[in-house]
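User: Let's play a game. I give you a shape written as tokens, and you guess the letters that built it. Ready? Here's round one.
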């Protein structure tokens, strides 16, 4: 095997190992997030009303967080990976330190704005006065997430995805445990006050962000000697003024943040319009419950599959930026095509499966608050477009097209706002109009970004491979798994039948993907342990 071949294999393994590490972490994060959402939604005194109070406040927090921190990890990651690819470790470390100081200031400003503006936001923006304490409880988290984001970007740029994965996993573990403990304590002390419990749940969020930052800071201290050695061995160092580095970070992070701001605005459109519009024909309490169903249960469930795919979007940015710095377009194209195909294979079955089993999933997970079947079925169609858009955005950002995702999602957000304003006030549609608006939003964004990406690189994705075969595999899965559920539902309890049907769907889909030979030999080899997997498939006669 030549040195060039070994290098290519090493790059493949590094990329996919990073993806796998992040994927496992994101799945763990979403599972833990589902656990505390289940706990809160089913907890006496909390339910959909508590979700409305907490979610409305959380979306405001997320919007300020987006301005102060989101976009930063990918921006720092892109700039650091470009420097390291050229051997300039000193320049990479300097970008990290200047970025850390810059976003510490920005994060502090964001925290202060949320703390002092909590009352006005709760009463006039959200029209949910009970959310004021929740906003105050969340305010310090903006500072800690801002500086944590810079550290995650630095580690990602160094291809140390495991540190980001560990910090995010630890944050979610802390958040889950603290949420349950704090809410239980407050429930006892306040006599199950929904308002106080919602605030307590978000105190736990703030505590978890601090602990996550502490982990990364301590880890950075342990590698200072290694970083020092890299700096001493630097080649191609190019001095840049502090103002110039800050400008470069902002030039990359602001467009990336704009994409996340648009995503946050998408959710905030619901927090601003849904309760307000529903009050025209529902009581105040019922309007909050309907919004709680959408923002608490449905958004949580439809975001679960995104956790599996976000790893590709995160890993693509530094990988493509490094390949571009070395003028290695072949590697960038292969990784983008493979990531998009995998995203399609993740998103399509999740969309159809959640649509088919919507009622059963809600009965299984939220027995004390199982309303929202139609909302979930409609919202399920956001999954496929959001997943594909995630991956495309990562590729575009790696190629330097950082404004495209923001503009595309901005067009989607405008579409959603118009549909929300028109549809939600109609009594026969109501909150379902917000779900329709979300589907339209992500569809518009996907159409724009995929067309821009195709103009920049020639994707290796034939129609049969990317569209036809995944649809066939999904239909086989859907028909077989629903048939299994119907047969079992008359024999055993519905919850157990649902679990068996969903597990069967996963197995059936995996078999269908293999039998249809959607992946080529080279693509299977890109997967960790791909050579062993291919060996097994070759032995049983599927691949020859």
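Assistant: Ready! My guess for every position:
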């Amino acid at each position: 095997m030549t040195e060039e071949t070994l290098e290519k294999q090493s790059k493949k393994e590094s990329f996919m190992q990073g993806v796998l590490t992040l994927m496992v972490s994101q799945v763990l994060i979403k599972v833990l997030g589902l656990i505390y959402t289940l706990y809160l939604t089913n907890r006496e005194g909390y339910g959909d009303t508590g979700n409305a109070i907490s979610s409305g406040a959380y979306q405001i927090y997320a919007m300020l967080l987006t301005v102060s921190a989101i976009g930063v990890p990918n921006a720092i990651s892109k700039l650091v990976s470009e420097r390291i690819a050229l051997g300039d470790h000193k320049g990479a470390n300097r970008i990290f330190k200047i970025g850390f100081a810059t976003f510490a200031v920005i994060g502090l400003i964001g925290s202060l704005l949320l703390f002092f503006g909590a009352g006005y936001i709760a009463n006039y923006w959200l029209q949910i006065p009970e959310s004021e304490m929740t906003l105050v409880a969340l305010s310090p988290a903006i500072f800690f997430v801002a500086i944590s984001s810079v550290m995650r970007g630095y580690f990602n740029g160094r291809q140390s995805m495991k540190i980001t994965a560990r910090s995010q996993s630890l944050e979610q573990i802390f958040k889950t445990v603290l949420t349950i403990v704090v809410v239980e304590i407050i429930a006892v002390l306040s006599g199950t006050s929904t308002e106080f419990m919602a605030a307590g749940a978000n105190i736990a969020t703030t505590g978890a962000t601090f602990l996550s930052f502490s982990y990364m800071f301590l880890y950075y201290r342990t590698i200072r000697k290694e970083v020092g050695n890299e700096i001493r061995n630097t080649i191609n160092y190019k001095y840049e003024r502090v103002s110039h580095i800050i400008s470069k970070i902002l030039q990359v992070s602001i467009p990336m943040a704009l994409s996340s701001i648009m995503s946050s605005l998408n959710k905030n459109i619901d927090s601003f319009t849904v309760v307000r519009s529903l009050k025209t024909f529902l009581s105040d309490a019922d309007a909050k419950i309907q919004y709680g169903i959408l923002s608490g249960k449905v958004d949580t469930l439809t975001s679960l599959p995104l956790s599996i795919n976000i790893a590709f979007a995160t890993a693509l940015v530094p990988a493509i930026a490094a390949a571009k710095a070395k003028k290695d377009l072949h590697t960038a194209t292969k990784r983008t095509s493979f990531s998009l195909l995998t995203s399609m294979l993740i998103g399509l079955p999740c969309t159809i499966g959640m649509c088919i089993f919507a009622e059963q999933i809600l009965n299984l997970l939220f027995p004390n608050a199982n309303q929202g079947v139609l909302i979930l079925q409609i919202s399920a169609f956001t999954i496929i477009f959001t997943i594909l858009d995630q991956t495309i955005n990562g590729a575009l950002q790696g190629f330097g097209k950082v404004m495209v995702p923001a503009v595309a999602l901005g067009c989607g957000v405008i579409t959603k706002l118009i549909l929300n304003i028109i549809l939600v006030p109609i009594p026969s549609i109501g909150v379902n109009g917000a779900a329709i608006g979300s589907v339209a939003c992500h569809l518009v964004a996907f159409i724009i970004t995929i067309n821009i990406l195709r103009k920049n690189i020639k994707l290796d994705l034939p129609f049969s491979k990317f569209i036809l075969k995944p649809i066939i595999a999904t239909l086989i899965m859907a028909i077989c798994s629903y048939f299994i559920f119907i047969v079992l539902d008359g024999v055993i309890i519905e919850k157990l039948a649902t679990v068996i049907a969903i597990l069967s769907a996963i197995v059936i889909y995996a078999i269908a993907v293999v039998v249809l030979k959607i992946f080529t030999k080279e693509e299977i080899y890109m997967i960790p342990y791909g050579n062993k997997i291919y060996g097994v498939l070759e032995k049983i006669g599927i691949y020859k």
